[in-house]
Amino acid sequence: MVNSLLAPLVVASISGALAYPSVARSRNGTCEGYTIAVSPSSTGLHYSYPPFKDNFDVVEFVTRLSSRDSASFYPFSGPLSLSGNYTIAAEICSPAVKTGKEKTLLLTSHGLGYHGDYWNPPVEPPIEQQYNFVGYALGQGYSVFNYDRLGTGRSSRVDGYNEGQTSQQIAILTELAQLLRNGQYTGSIGAPSKLVLVGHSFGSFISNGVVAGSTANNSLIDGLLLTGFSYNLTSPDYEAFALKIASTERREWADLDNGYITWNDVYSNVAVFFRAPAYSHAVANWTECQKQAIALSEFLTFPMLDLYSPGFTGPVQILNGELDFGICDGNCTDWVEPYAAKMFPNAKVVEVLEHPSVGHAINFQYNSTGAYSAMMRFVDKHLA
């Protein structure tokens, strides 16, 4: 919450989307896919620490980052203007049964180590319908726009040290929101009546960043649903991840530079994202197989965002797993609430919830539908 250098500046236009065939991704509706050309522009930070040569360098870097005197370790050397031309993979999903609520559009953003399938995984063993947020939202009558963030999934790969910074991710999300508000890439629903940002973890930070970065965006977004999210990041869990250079771990990441990192194995995954006994080992193993490499630039810059949003007047819900280690040091009770209302002093309502007994990856733990239900009740009450 301290570095305004990460607030996005001017964002260029997004155009030239190419549709691919519609595909049923849920028993409750249909999704149509797009590849969208983007040209974001923002101000970030210039990465100045020596690039990693091997995993020994990563261990040294993480040790310095996690040490008691880490405040004096600053791997940047001032502001950096960022711009580029990329493609973003996305899908618009609309409910099979139209009730009028489909005009409220939920724009989802996933966290680090995932892609858009965090919100809309294929419903096949061991992933059951209960783990699919998009399917649940469609069943409640709402539409969902889901995408792979820059550097993940089917979206463009970029330089891991600088290009994937949080400011660029906010810039892209802002422009996607502008396009959707204008009725582009929304399929049969047309221009939405309400646009709600839904985030998980890093996706929550950039969702909050959209309304914090510019007063003009306060009329663009009608509401925020933030999960796996906190303003009180006091104890980073870098060492629990046991981070390594991504290209040394998987053949399909061979084209990534050494600025892309990943956690070590399924046990590191579980340490940060899950809590026993509220998850299936088979589902945890599935998420490990699906994990995405993480750009060091986004990993380092999101904790530095200034997320104070005095101009936002819409409703805000913050929902965390009660035992989230990744964001609340293992206990979210009373961890977020003291800060939330202060960050949104003019919001219509700020609701903070802890989902019982689960960790950071709420969507892939038992009773995920309980979390979805709380989220949709909030939308029904304040945003339908």
Order of neighbouring strands in the sheet with most strands: 1-2-5-7-6-8-9-13-14
**Top-tier CATH class:** Alpha Beta
CATH topology: Rossmann fold
Q: What's the total count of β strands? A: 14
**Radius of gyration from CA coordinates:** 19 Å
- Tally of separate domains: 1
Instruction: Please summarize the sheet with the most strands.
Output: 9 strands, mixed
Instruction: Provide the succession of SSEs.
Output: EEEHEEEHEHEHEHEEHHEHEHHEH
CATH homologous superfamily classification: Alpha/Beta hydrolase fold, catalytic domain
N- to C-terminal separation? Answer: 31 Å
- Cα shape: globular
Helix content: 25-40%
User: SS-based structural class?
Assistant: alpha/beta
Determine the strand fraction and express it as a percent band: 15-25%
InterPro entries: AB_hydrolase_1, AB_hydrolase_fold
Keywords: Signal
Pfam family, one: Abhydrolase_6
Protein name: AB hydrolase-1 domain-containing protein
3D structure, described in words:
Residues 110-364 form the AB hydrolase-1 domain. This protein has helices spanning 55-66, 133-139, 166-181, 202-213, 238-241, 266-273, 281-290, 296-301, 325-328, 337-343, 368-382, and strands at 15-26, 29-38, 41-47, 76-83, 86-95, 104-109, 143-147, 194-200, 223-227, 244-245, 260-262, 294-295, 316-321, 350-355. The chain has 384 residues and is α/β, with parallel strands linked by helices. α3 packs across α4. The longest helix has 16 residues, at 166-181. The protein has a single domain, classed as Rossmann fold, CATH 3.40.50. It contains 11 helices and 14 strands. A hairpin with a 2-residue loop joins β1 (15-26) and β2.
